[in-house]
Structure formats: C-alpha cells, structure tokens
Request: fold
Amino acid sequence: MKLIKRLYEIYLNCNQKICIDSRSNEIENAVFFAIQGDNFNGNHFIEDAFSKGAKYAVSDDKELVKKKDNKAIILVENTLQTLQNLATQHRQSLNIPIIAITGSNGKTTTKEILTHILKSTFNPLSTSGNFNNHIGVPLTILSINKQHNIAVIEMGANHVGEIKELCKIAQPTHGIITNIGDAHLEGFGSIENIKIAKNELFEYLKEHNKIIIYNSDDEILKELINDYPNTRSYKKPHFFPLGPTRNKESEYHYEMNPFLVLKNINLKSNSQDVSNYIETKLIGQHNINNIIAAIKIANLLEVSYKNIKNRLDKFELKNNRCQFIKTKKNLILLDAYNANPTSMYSGLQSFLDIIRWNRKFNNDKPKPNQFLYILGDMLELGENEVKYHQEILDYLSYTFLGLSNKVILVGNIFSKTIIPQNSGLRYCVQVKSNIEAAEILKNRKFTEKEMLVFIKGSRKLELEKLIDYL
Reply:
C-alpha cells in the first residue's frame, strides 16, 4: 500500500498523465508504465520514453532497474497489477456516478449515444476507442480529472472473471448489459459461460446495492435480475407502421425512413416548443435498443427530454459502425468495426429495411443487379466457426430471394462455406482478402451504378478499404 500511495502522489504531481506507449504524443512529463504483453515488453522502451520526456517509469524488470540505477524508475512486482491498483486508488477518491456498460452486442454504440446525450448536462468522460479491457479500463479511470462529473465505462471480456476484476477497479454506481449472445465464443467456450461472465457486472451491482438498468423484453436478462429491487427497466419501442399501441414501459414509437425516427407518444406535438419527434442518422432496428437504453439512463440521471432530443437529432455513428455512406455511384451501409452471428443477422435485417424504405434509388421497383453484399469473416467463434458462417450464407440466400443479389464473401472461413443452389444469390464469389475483393470491384460490369451495398465483417479484414472502389 505504501508503494501505491507513493505512486499516486507521483501520478497527481504529473498532472495525471499515464502512458503505456513511448510513441504517444502524451509521453512528455508522464509516468510511463512498462506493460508486458504476448508480443511486446514495455521494459525495452523505458529509455525511449525518457528520451521523449517521460518523468517516471514503472518497471517489473529487476535486472534492468538494477542496471539503470535511475531513481526515476520505480520497481514493482507486476506492472499491470500496479496500474490496476493505482486506478482503484484513484476511483476511491472520486465521488461521481460511473455507468458501466457491457454486452455481446451494442455496448460501444450505447456508450457513444449515452455520452453524446450526457454532454448536454454533464462533463462526462467515457471509454475511448476499444479501451475496454484489463488495461484500457484502468487507463480510462486514471483519465478522470476534477473537471469530469460523470463517467461511462465500457467493459469487454473474452473469458470468465474479467468483468468481475474490471468492476473492482471501476466500482460502477450504475450498470447495463445490452444483451447476451454468441460473441467471442472461442475465448468463453459456450453461451453459458458468456452469460456467467456478463452477469459479473450485475453481481457486483447487487452486492453493493447499486442500480441495474435492463431490457425487460430480454428473458435472459430478466432471469439474471432475479427479483433484485434496485433496477430500472425499459422495453423496445413499438414499430409504428404496425399500428399505434400504448406500452406503459415505453413512451416511444419508432419509424424508419430509412433512418430511425422516434416519436414521444406522451408529449403533444410542439409541446413546450419541442417536437415530439427525434430524427436520428442511425440505421437498423438493432440500434433502437441502443438508443432506448441510452435514453433510459439519461432519464435516470435527470437529463431533460429537450436536451435528449437536441443531442440525438441528426446523431450519427462513425468509426465504421453502421454508417450510411453515399458515394458518387452508390449508397453503402458500412458496419465493418466488428462482427459475430448476432450482429451479422441484425445488419442484414437492417439492410433489408433500407431496401424496403429507401427513397433515394427507389423507382417503384429495385433495379436489376442493384444489391451487393460484402461479408467478411466473423472471428473468435471457436470450433463451430464454419457452421456459423454457413448459417449466415443460408440465411442470406433464402431471405433475400428475388432481389437479384451479388455477394462477395471475404476471408478464410467464408471460403470454406458452400454456396446454396437455387438460392437468391445471382452471383456469389469467395475470396481470401480485401485485396482480392478489390480486384473484383474494379470490374465495371460488376460495380454498376446506383447499387445498394452492405459491408460487414470483423475489424481485422479492414473491409472499409473497399469503399474506394464503390
């Protein structure tokens, strides 16, 4: 504890600047933590960090520390554990709400929507990029300063026990599991283990009598709640074209045109000089749950409807997440940040919604050869990976019959699938990489103008690079 207290004083004196990468623009006057990973050893970059302005370094290499004999190098037993302990120490000094978000799908989108809303009322800090693991969460906590009065922390995991440890560090006051599905099966081994792992957030919140937010339409989440009283629930809004309804747990209807539009059914039109319509730039039914979850948490934190509406109007995602892109030739739905079976099905359904609702290219009937699907491998699915990919291909083949579809399947796993006969796929090709896919797209006969294009795959495949050819 003495060491952590000393480090905490150093951290505060360095204006809370922590770095784990000697190449960072923030390295000057920072405390450099020499983290070791599977493919790198931060201890090898301590001198580089000092040469670029780091004030201190934390190392767990006894021989190196002895050899350097530099009082600015602090020897610890385990650098990563020390970083986590330091973050825990800092969290205990904070008296602000911390909202933890986890789930198989939608956690990053929900985090981004919620943070965007909260900026109307608070000065929030939220997880940056994919800093949602055993290194990223402590770094995020250590980034909270006196100007921040709330934090939104995303928690990812690929094995049982990880979220439990992240909760000990972040000590959330509120928490939500967006859903539980078949993501990262390779690490977890089974859906049941994913359920156990995600529930670690709820278990922490129950143990400390904190607030749980959950979707009461989700039977798995309802089971995990198990009569815990300190909860706030929400339901997916009603799809208005199916007819109006009154749902006591949801004050919204939603429409698609093709962007998602929410209607506050409890607010009279133009009441309080605020329209009861929220017009986003988000695509897809799956994003409705992300939006409503964020709204529910914002309501809980007493953010006004007017502020929620003002922040959500025209809100759109970036970073290759369900982006609607119009090129000179085509209209593209790009969702190339990540992929698993659940999100792939949702993405395909969203694309079908766009086909149905699209107004830009709709001349009564879709044009021949108008719909192009570029699907990349879904990684980390374990021993049944080919089976999951085949099911996606079968779903695509028979759900989109009659739409004159073209399909490019990208990756080593999709290359092992069998293209169904007599399906809706007029043209389907399997390639190993985005480079090979680009060669196909260079064929002008293949990339006709005014196509609707759907692109989705795991981050590693970098499918967003194909936009240049569309």
Q: What stands out?
A: Residues 2-79 form a domain with the Udp-n-acetylmuramoylalanyl-d-glutamate--2,6- Diaminopimelate Ligase; Chain: A, domain 1 fold (CATH 3.40.1390.10). The radius of gyration is 24 Å.
